[in-house]
Structures are given as C-alpha cells and as structure tokens.
Amino acid sequence: MRRLWRDQRGGFTIEASLVLPMIFYTVLLLLFFCLYLYQHVLLGQAATVAAERTAYTWDNSHKNVLTGANAEGQYDSLYWRLGDDGMLQAIFDWNSEGGTVKLDLPGGNEEAGQSLPLQKLSRTGAGLPEGISGEMRYDNRLLLRKVSVALERLVPLAPLEGWIGDVNQSVRAEAYVVEPVEWIRTVELARYFGEKFRSDKGQGGTDKQEAKEALKLFGK
Predict the structure, then answer these.
(1) How far is CA 117 from CA 40, 42, 82, 204, in A?
(2) Which residue, of 86, 98, 102, 132, has the greatest Cβ tally within 10 A?
C-alpha cells in the first residue's frame, strides 16, 4: 500500500481530470457573460441613438432621421410649437400630463391622423431593430423639452435558461431638445404672461383663460 501511495504514475491525468472541467466551465461562464454585456451595450446604443436623433430633428419633421438634412422649403407650420408641441398645455396646465406624448414600441410606423409629436417619435421608432419593445416619450415642460427612450429585450441564452430562466435586458436614454433662439422666445413669453397673471385687470393684467384663447388663435 505504501508503494502504491508513493507511485506518481498517472498523477497528472487524475489532476487534469479534476481541474480541466472547472476551467472549462469557468471559461464558458465568462463567454456567456461577455455575450450578455455585448447585447446590453447594443441595446443601450440603440436607445441613445434613437433619443439623440429624435431630439436633433425635432425642430423640423421633414428632416432625414439619419442625416438631419431636409429639402429646401420643407418646414413645419410657423406656430407648431404653441399647439402641436404642447407649449400651451405646459403654460396653462390643461391636463396633468402637460405636453407629454408617448409611443409604444414596436409599431413605430407613421399613421394618418397622428399628432405632429407622435409622427416625429414614430419616424425614429420605425428604425429600431426587431425584437425590441419599450416606449418613446416626449415631455414638454416649457423650458425643459426632453425625449426619453426606454427599451427592453429578451436575450436568448439557451444553455442558461434552465438555471436562471429568461434573461430580460432594459435600458433608458434621454436627450434634450435644444433650440437656443426658441428658448429665448419661450423665456420672454413666460416672463410676459407671468407679469400679466400677477397684475390686476385694471393695471393691464389678464387671466389665464383670456391668454389661452388669444394664443390658440396663433397656434392654429
């Protein structure tokens, strides 16, 4: 028995048979983890690109989503920001949502009769990869206009589904609509009506209902 215990023949084979499976499964886990991170990065990149492109082309619905170019003479109506973009809702608090527009994904194709903000969201939503669900959202808080994109996707990892079940990934990206000239106009509009609302009618003031009706005429 002592001679067998001291015999080193076959020791490498026994050690390799014990260590190799551990190394093999560790490498597999690292590979699947890298695939998971890769898919998560792709999903995050899709959300970021969708938000940035939508915000960049928000000032003109005729702009190409990929290049930002538009044909000469193609613009939205002059006062689209007052009515279609929800500025009046943001100023006068017509409803609790204010100037908020939501688009459920998938299904981002433009349809007849859609509001202008929904059309702009649909143009970008239609270009997202297949198999992605979620929501695109536009919020107009008068001085803060933001496009939010929340995406979800089921990642098929067949070898791991039996252990951890379905793997869902979710990401969120935001981009702000930046229009320096229009921002200055909005600030001046807010200051003007803020002073009007604080003053009495005898001192040149007005109420929200009168101001709303006046701005509605320009928003058409």
Answers:
(1) 28, 26, 12, 35
(2) 86
